[in-house]
Amino acid sequence: MGSIEMGLALRMWIAGLLLLTHLVHGALCWGDDGHYAVCKIAQGYFEEETVVAVKKFLPASADGELAAVCSWPDEIKRLPQWRWTAALHFADTPDYKCNYDYSRDCAEDWCVTGAIFNYTNQLMSASEDSLSIVPYNLTEALMFLSHFMGDIHQPLHEGFLGDLGGNRVKVSWYNQETNLHRVWDDMIIESALEKYYNSSLSIMIHALEDKLKYGWSNDVRSWGSCQRNETACPNPYASESIDLACKYAYKDATAGTTLGDDYFLSRLLIVEKRIAQGGIRLAATLNRIFSSKPKLATA
Ligand SMILES: *[C@@H]1O[C@H](CO)[C@@H](O)[C@H](O)[C@H]1NC(C)=O
Ligand SMILES: *[C@@H]1O[C@H](CO)[C@@H](O)[C@H](O)[C@H]1NC(C)=O
Ligand SMILES: *[C@@H]1O[C@H](CO)[C@@H](O)[C@H](O)[C@H]1NC(C)=O
Ligand SMILES: *[C@@H]1O[C@H](CO)[C@@H](O)[C@H](O)[C@H]1NC(C)=O
Questions:
Q1: Please, where are the H alpha helices in the chain?
Q2: Which family, according to UniProt (predicted)?
Q3: Residue 236 has pLDDT above 80, yes or no
């Protein structure tokens, strides 16, 4: 076998393995595509110091590409030593409460918002002094922060506690049985890829990048900024998500419903905007973290 076929065989094998893992576990967060898109879009908005710092902290397996490791927290969260991280992927609200409240929904900082503050602070501590005395693993901090910035923008990561953010709401997506959470993690994106983007995630990402430049352009600056001078400001993102969950995700999608074109076409716009906002806000947060650390760029 030539090296090209070898490479192909290996990739098919890995793809098969990933598919199997996916089928066995099911997906519980923006699927891999959603996370990849958020991080890929963010990369386009990195300032110079951020490019350098991110490269420094990425694991070798990322091959210099943040997007390549943005699903890592999903891959590890069922391993015994990482099970404690599972609750950091979301911030559910009491049933039928369409607002979010940090002290109520993020007790002891134990939710996606608290985790975003936590990993931002760890990365901030990096450059203040010498890297060697930082007691955290900043590779993990970067991968967690990038992943959770995606999760917080998936409306059903701020869903209701009683149905586990839509995981217990059984619905059909066209003729496929699934649950509402997965519809928002994966199905809407997958259907969009097939219908509009020739099954190519990179074509979809390019379309979102164009929308950011020519469509949403007036809003993009405000998406990235924080009120007061915070480095990270995830609370408003969580408030937006539960509001969207009530207005769009849960609406007309009670258990047993078959969701089709009406739901897909009206919700796709929300999903695309949330992915784009996640990317812009991840880039803005990392830029704020690393712009104050010129030392890192030269270390
Ligand atoms: C913050 O991160 C550290 C290191 O991963 C972890 O031990 C701690 O539990 C985290 N706390 C929160 C609130 O996420
Ligand atoms: C940091 O975390 C990554 C991912 O878990 C791991 O591969 C690496 O060995 C860790 N580095 C140190 C110094 O512990
Ligand atoms: C769509 O994808 C297929 C397979 O990758 C490719 O052969 C075809 O040229 C693509 N069509 C367009 C319009 O890009
Ligand atoms: C934000 O930071 C600037 C410059 O450090 C400072 O002048 C300003 O007062 C700060 N604003 C708030 C609301 O903290």
A1: 3-25, 32-43, 48-57, 72-76, 102-105, 112-128, 138-151, 180-182, 188-196, 201-214, 217-224, 235-244, 261-291, 294-298
A2: Belongs to the nuclease type I family.
A3: yes
